[in-house]
Amino acid sequence: MKRKHRRHSEEFKREVLQYSTESSKSITQICKEFDISPALFYSWKKKLWGCATDARAVGESGSGAAPEATSAELADEVRRLRKELASPSDEKKS
Q1: Which residues contact 25 (CB under 8 A, 6 or more apart)?
Q2: Backbone phi, then psi, for 57, in 5-degree steps?
Q3: Distance from C-alpha of 55 to C-alpha of 60, rounded to nearest angstrom
Q4: How far is 51 from 84, CA to CA, in rounded Å?
Q5: What is the pLDDT of residue 71?
Q6: Helix H or strand E encompassing 69
Q7: Distance CA 4, CA 50 (A)
Q8: Distance of CA 58 to the CA centre of its chain
Q9: Torsion angles phi and psi, residue 58, rounded to 5
Q10: What residues contact 34, with CB distance under 8 A and at least 6 apart?
Q11: Cβ–Cβ contacts within 10 Å for residue 44, how many?
Q12: What does the alpha-carbon distance between residue 31 and residue 83 come to, in Å, rounded to a whole number?
């Protein structure tokens, strides 16, 4: 039997999204708890917070956050860190 289409208030959507940032539960667990699909959760997140990634994973609340680093900036950082790990440090020589 098909599920009847439900409408959720903006307040409910914001509460679910806020709960997801404060909870240690997975998005799947949260969606089961609120009886919504993960796809619906992420569509709310994209619409209301302007992002589709998991805020807990990137450490941002989604509002007022600094823009994400570009792929070129990230690639430069990876190269720098690899060089840092590859070169012998002064601490290792002591």
Answers
A1: 33
A2: -70, -35
A3: 5
A4: 32
A5: 78
A6: none
A7: 28
A8: 5
A9: -100, -5
A10: 16
A11: 19
A12: 42
CA angle 86, 89, 93 (to 5 degrees): 120
State which amino acid sits at residue 10. Answer: E
The answer for residues whose C-beta is within 8 angstroms of residue 60's C-beta and 6 or more apart is 51
Which amino acid, 87? S
pLDDT digits (tens, 9 = 90+) for 35-89: 999 999 999 888 888 765 554 444 444 444 445 667 778 888 888 888 888 877 6
pLDDT attached to residue 67: 55
Rounded to whole angstroms, the Cα distance separating 52 from 27 reads: 12
Residue with tokens 């999204």: 17
Give the helix/strand (H/E) hosting 38. helix 38-49
Q: Distance between CA atoms of 56 and 76, rounded to whole angstroms?
A: 24
Compute the distance between CA of residue 39 and CA of residue 62 in angstroms, rounded to an integer. Answer: 18
